[in-house]
Amino acid sequence: MTVKECYEKLNGNYSDVMERLESEKFVSKYLIRFIDLTDFDDMIKAINEKNWECGFRASHNLKGTCLNLSFTELAHSSSELCETMRHGAPEKDNSALVAKVTEDYKVVMDALKQYKSEL
Amino acid sequence: MKKFLKNIFIQYQVILATLLLIFISVFCISFVYKRMLNFTSEQCWKNLNESSHVVSEHFSNNLQYQSLMLQDYANIMRKNEIKTEQQIRDFKNNYILSSALYDLYIILPDSMILGPNGTEIDARSQKLFQKECSLGEHFSGIENNLSYEENNDFNIIRHYYPVEVGDKCVAILYFVLELDFYTNNDYLKLYENDVDYIVFNPKTKDIYINTMTEKYGSVYSYINRLSGVDVFNLFEKIENRQECSFYFTSNYNNKKLYLYSMPTSYENFSLCLFSEYNVIFDDVLRFKRMSIIVISIMTICYLIYLRFMFRYTKDKIEKSVLEERLNKAENATKAKTMFLSTISHDIRTPINAIVGYTNLALLHIDKTYEVKRYLSKELAACNHLLSLINEILDMSRIETGKIKIKNEPANLLDLIHEIENIVNVQLHAKDIQFNLDTSEVTNPYVQCDKIHLNQILLNILGNAIKFTETGGVVSFTVRQNELDKFESKGEAEYHFIIKDNGMGMSPEFMRKLYEPFERQDSAKVSGIQGSGLGLAITKRLTELMGGRISIKSIVDKGTEVSVVIKLKLIDNPVSTEINSVNTNLVYDVPVVSDVFASKKILLAEDNDFNREIASELLRMSGFYVDEVTNGKEALEKIASSNPGYYAVVLMDIQMPIMNGYEATRAIRQLKNEELANIPVIALSANAYDEDLKMAEEAQMNGYVTKPVSEKKLFKVLGDIINKK
To answer: pTM for the whole thing?
Structure first.
C-alpha cells in the first residue's frame, strides 16, 4: 500500500499533506507513529467519566494531530466534538459526535495498520 | 607483576644491606686495626724505653754502690791510719767481708794487687799504681782478657778509688764491674734475651758491644756496615748524653735493627738496647699475624655468606619470574576461557535466532506476511550479532592500542542532534520522554574525535534507553565550563550528563562496572541484550580522549552517567558540519536556507505529536531545537538562557498552564533587553483577524498557521532571522 492509497482509504487529503510536509518518507514515519498515540483512548475514557477538561484536551490533541497529518474526516469530526467540550460539560448530548469520531478513527486505524503491515 | 617486582626489590635490598654490612665491617676492622697497630707500636716503644731505663738505672746503681763502698773502705783506712803494706794486708784480711757483693781489689804502691781470698796479682810490670793513683776516683776503659783478675774471661770496667792517708797515696782500691752480666739479665727477659746492648764510655772512648770490647774507631766499621744509620750523629748524641733512638737495616741479612740509647744517671756512661725489629716489635708482628688470620676468616665467612645470598636471591628471582609467568599464563587461560564462554553464549543466542527464523521463513515461504515478520526478526538478530562483533573488535583494538584519537573540527550541537536522531526510534518505541538541554553550550565549535565521541555518547544513551522501562524519562544535558584562559590555552571542559529513571545498578555490580563482559545479574536484565563490553569500551575511549567518566546509580531509581572531556575551542564555525548532518538525514528534504544553520530555536507546543513533527522539520533545516510543552516552561527557558542563545521562539497559542500570548507578554517584561526582545512567532490553528490582532498586541513578531506547512514556516522564520 502506498501512502497515497493509505490516505484515500482513511479519508485523508494526500495532496495537502504532501504540499506541507513534502516527503513521503517523512509522512510515512508519522503515519506509523499515529498508531501508537493514545489521545483517542484517553478522550473516550474521559468522556465516559464525564471528565470534560481531559476530554477537551485529548480531543484537542487528536484534532491537532489529524490536522497536521491531513486526516480530513477524523480532523473534522474530532474538531466538532472538541468544541462541544471547550467550556466544560457539553450543552447538548454529543454521543452522536463521539460515535462519528469513533467510526472515523476506526477507518483511519484500519487503513494505517494495513499500511504498516505491508511495509 | 607486582609480586615479582616486590621480590626483586626485597632481594636487592638484602644484597645491598649485605654489601653495606661488609663495607661497615671493613671500615670498622681497618679502623680498629690501625688503632691497635698504633697502640701496639707505642707499647713496643714504651717497653723498649722502659727496658733501657731499667738496665741503665741498674748499671748506674751498681756503680754508685761501688763508689759508696770504696768511700767507706777509704774512710776506715784513713781513720785508722792504715799506711803500711802490712796494715793494708791486715785491713784486707780482717775488714773485707768475703760475702760482699763485689770483690775488693787493693793495688799496693809496688803495683802488687791484693785480690779476694788471699790471692795476689803481680802488676808491677805495668806500674799500675803509679798510673792510676793520681786520677782520683775513676773508671778504667772497657777491657777484657786481662791476666790479673780471676774472672778474666769477662769484659769489665774497673772502678778505681785511690786512698790518701795524710798527703800520701797509700793504696788504690777498686771493684770490677762485669759487663757481660747483663747478657743474661732478667731485665731483658721481655725480649727473651734476643736483645743486645752497647755500653759506651765516652771518657775513654771505649765501647762494649756483643761481648767484645772495642774502641770507637774499630766499631765504626761494624756500625758502618749497617746501612741507614748516621754513625757520627749517633756517637755525637751518645757523647752528649742524649736519649735517642735509631733504626737501620743490616747489610748482612737485610733485617731491620733498632737501637735505643739511654745515658746513665751516674757517671757519663751510655747504655743502648739494640735488636732486630721483629724482636722489639714482636707484639706488633703478632698482632699483624692475628689480624691477617681474623680478616681472612671474616672474608671467607662473608664470601660464603654472599655466595649463599646470591644463590638464594637468584633462586627467589627465578621463582618469582616463574610464578609471574605462571600467573600470566593462568590469567590468560582464564581470560580466554571466560571470553570464549561468554562470547560463545552471546554469539550463539542471535545465531540460534537467525537459524530458527530462517527455518520458519522457509516453512512459510509462500506466506509473504509471515516471511516478512520472520525476516525482520532475523534482521534484528543479525544486527545484534554485528554490533556484538563490532564491540569485540573495538575492545580488541583499544586493548592493542590500535585506536588513535583524531582531533578534527566539529560542531558539538550537530553531533548531539545527530545522536538524538539516531536514538529517536528507540525512544519512541519505548515511549520514553527525552529531555535534551544544550542551553549551557556557549561555544559548540571544538576540535575532537567525532566518531569516538559519538560512540561514547551513543553507548551511554543507548544503555539509558535500554535499561529504562516504557514511559520512563531520559535526560541528556550538555554543559560547557570554560577554563581559565591562561591555564587552558583556549580549552573548555564539556560535561555530558545522561540521566535516566530506569532500573539502576546494585553497589556490587558498580564495583566491576568497567570490567569487560560484566553484566548485572538481575532478572530484569535477563531479557535485555548486551555483551557487557559497552561500558568497558566507553571508559577506555573516554580515557583515550583525556576525559573521565563517573557513574552514580541507585537500584530502581535510575542512573546518572557523567562524561567530562576537555576540548580545544575553535573560533570559526564549521560550515561543512551542517552539510554533513543533512547528508545523514533519512529523508530527502532539501535544506531551506543556510541562514538557519546552527541557529537555536525554542519550540513551545503542547501536542507531543505535532511538536515532534515541527521539531524534526526544524532540525532538518539546520536549527538546534529545544522543546517545551507550555508557555510557563518557555518563559523559564528564555529567562534562564544567555542573551543571544536562542535566535527565535516558535510559540503555540493554545497551551495548558500558560498560553502563548501570556508567555510572550511575560518574555517582553524580562529585565534583560536582548532576552525581552527575542523574536516570537505564533503557531496557531486559528487565523482570524482577531487572532492576528491579539498576537500583535502580545508583541509577537510573526504568525504561522497550523497545520504547519514547511514552506510557510521557513518563510516566516527566514524573514525574522534575516531581519534580525
So the answer is: 0.38
